[in-house]
Give the backbone structure.
Amino acid sequence: MTTQKRTLGVCYYPEHWPRKIWEEDAARMVEAGLTWVRIGEFAWSRLEPSQGDYRFGWLDDAIEVLGKAGLKVVLGTPTATPPRWIVDKHPDMLAVDVDGRPRGFGSRRHYCFSHEGYKAEAAKIVQLMTERYGRNPYVAAWQTDNEYGCHATTISYSVPARDAFRDWLRGRYGDDIAALNEAWGNVFWSMDYDSFDQIELPNLTVTEPNPAHSLAFRRFSSDQVVAFNRAQVEIIRAHSGLPIAHNYMGKITDFDHFAVGADLDIASWDAYPLGFLDESTSFDPAHKQAYARQGDPDFQAFHHDLYRAVGKAGTGGGRWWVMEQQPGPVNWAPHNPAPLPGMVRLWTWEAFAHGAEAVCYFRWRQAPFAQEQMHAGLLRPDSEEAAGMAEVYAVAEELSSAPDAHAVQAPVALMFDYDADFAWKVQPHAQGLSYFELVFAHYRALRKLGLSVDIVPPTTQDFSGYSLVLVPGMMHVSGALKAALNAAEIPVVLGPRTGARTSEMSIPVPLPPAWSGLDITVTAVESIRLQTPVPLAQGGAFVSYREMIESGEAEVLEQTGDGWPAWLRQGHLNYLAGWGDMDALCRILASICEGAGVQTTVLPDGLRCRDTGRERFWFNYDTHAHQIDGQFFGPVSVTRQAL
Ligand code: GAL
């Protein structure tokens, strides 16, 4: 069991405020119980207003003021906001959208990950910053860039991306165009190529492009993010021994976070519970209404568990943070309500319950100018305290007497695979069908059963310590993973769509799931409208998607109302033949848990619990109280019990 302190921090933009208030700001941060202050990540135009005209003096000063006050600085590299002069110098550095239009200057993240000229500019500023601050006594960590993938920026259909994609394909197919034609099935619709230089990006085609082409481009685009980040990491490591983080996002799955995380020491993410709920199209209106001021009760927890896994992929031994925590209304969702009193504290404790080392609020003071003037901070624009601040004081006070955190392995492992997400995006089979949502539905069911969950990457080979592992929807499963799952002596839950495609996005023959030890064949599939669910014999239904399965040796444990196998089992391998609704998932998973010796308790929708090594936390997202086994949980409350 590892132990760690729990700390708080804030995001601050000294360049937005007069020099004369920096000392007071720093003193107030310390008084509020904050440890960390993240700065710098959008400041390029004030560090280098024109090429080679470096103005680091103000940043030297800001770091010193904050550090002398007792704060630890997380310094961001400013590459998410290239200033205007760089765009003028490299007009073709702009990312290009799917319709072929360059994305304009005037906000942020306008660069293309494949533009060599921009990459050189980014390397230069990162090099200068790390030479200057790499050993500064007040700088304690780095953040690379800001939110890779935000504003749909992973994928760019630019000429530099096309050229780099061609090179990437040459590497993947050993410079053999016949091998690519064969792998992609380009005989279909006469799509064969004679040379890699004929391959365009998969946009602007008359109808849908070849899914193998699209999947390759998504994999390439993900690799470009990994390479962009790695270039910064290598420069930082050459000048600084400090830990390096990146701040990932909610529900952004366009690049392989495990691969980016492998180069970093700390995984972090930006938690905006109310914004996420309001902007999501997958929650129904009643759910949105019930949780409008609290956020979805599982969404934050899912990401805490996901990014804990991304942290484990890195060099820091599993360190992870919330780098930005919503402290009040945001500005960017369709509607931006204020959180209920108590929610800022609840969200903060929930992150700690899932193992966060630090929670930093975004932002210190609300900006009276520019795009985010309607986004709350801990302070109002006039420097008076905003509503969220009182809750920060409360958490800081509680932390001062709370024991250190003890991390522990959860009983259940749920696999998340970014490559499967790419494959579902390329071939969803119905509007809105999403791998993320399928995995999230399984996660929600496990949490509704009162379980703590570890999310694990597709490279996992050792499942020891777990009582149950779930691998829903993983379109392509490597031979190594199949072997590891076959060797695991615990119940494994596969399907739907697990093993449905080869790594080149074709249907395998023998037909899916093509799994030795699981003698079943998916003979046909269908996607169905939400209004026409397929009922299961013992309650609940398959919604959105189901498979028709013929079983050889596997036992059919349950059928659909129309007579097809719904749940099959052979040895320790279970297969679910459709997308179960919450009733079906909870019922079937509870039964599998029982067989595995994992105790479950069905919780109300807004009440969730999580165990650390020595504590059990209860979080009530509901505005009414709950009672479970004689225990009372008040509305919008956090309950911490010693285990
Ligand atoms: C994040 C971003 C911040 C800020 C914030 C507003 O996505 O990293 O810079 O824009 O959203 O909620």
